[in-house]
Amino acid sequence: MREWSPIIPKSVLYVYSNLETDPSNWDLSLLANPSSKINIILIVDAVLLLIIGLVIIVLYLQEKVQDDKE
User: Looking at per-residue confidence, does 7 or 54 come out higher?
Assistant: First the structure.
């Protein structure tokens, strides 16, 4: 039996093989459960998109003002 530590925290990796018929045939299945943190993920994504959008709007308006001066 082999054991691997998961790369993604709080995830499970299942390894399926049928050693009797074909030992070289392996099947992997990764189960990750992000549902407990989905609300935080959505809020952080929304805030970051809002900040990036505000930066783009401010820079656009500054450039427009400079173009009008010229």
Answer: 54
